[in-house]
Amino acid sequence: MTVDRTPDDRRPDHHDRRPDHRFHDERRPGDPRRITVDPESVRRSLAGLVLTIVELLRQLMERQALRRVDQGDLSDEQIEELGLTLMALEKNMAELREHFGLTQDDLNIDLGPLGPLLPRD
User: Fold this and answer.
1) Long-range Cβ contacts of 75-81 (<8 Å, 24+ apart)
2) How far is 98 from 120, CA to CA, in rounded Å?
């Protein structure tokens, strides 16, 4: 089968093609859509994300520990050790937040209609 081509429906030559904008970025420095990345803000943001996850896990562990204490599953020594461990972990989290210049509210991601990630005390 042969297809007759007219000059109007031939493929354009390479120099006739417009650039594919998916691969070619024509934005100039100072363009408001351009993202400028400050290494310090990236470091702080990454630390905030990691500490948010750690804080979420810390709070979940604390709630689980309190449930076990309420159920009477633990001895007095285990309760004491658990309390000291949770207090040390909370203190370490406070030190890490201070080191990175973050507050407890900085770690509480707003999930929109679901509300904040971490419960407010």
Assistant:
1) none
2) 19
Domain boundaries, the chain: 39-102
One-letter-per-residue 3-state SS of 47-114? HHHHHHHHHHHHHHHHHHHHHHHHHCCCCHHHHHHHHHHHHHHHHHHHHHHHHCCCCCHHHCCECHHH
Estimate the crossing angle of helix 76-99 against helix 39-71, to 10 degrees: 170
DSSP helix/strand/coil, 21 = coil
Longest dimension (CA), the chain: 91
pLDDT digits (tens, 9 = 90+) for 28-38: 655 666 666 78
Mean pLDDT over each residue of the chain, to the nearest integer = 78
One-letter identity of residue 49: L
Distances (CA, A) of 11 to 14, 15, 24, 29, 40: 9, 11, 21, 35, 50
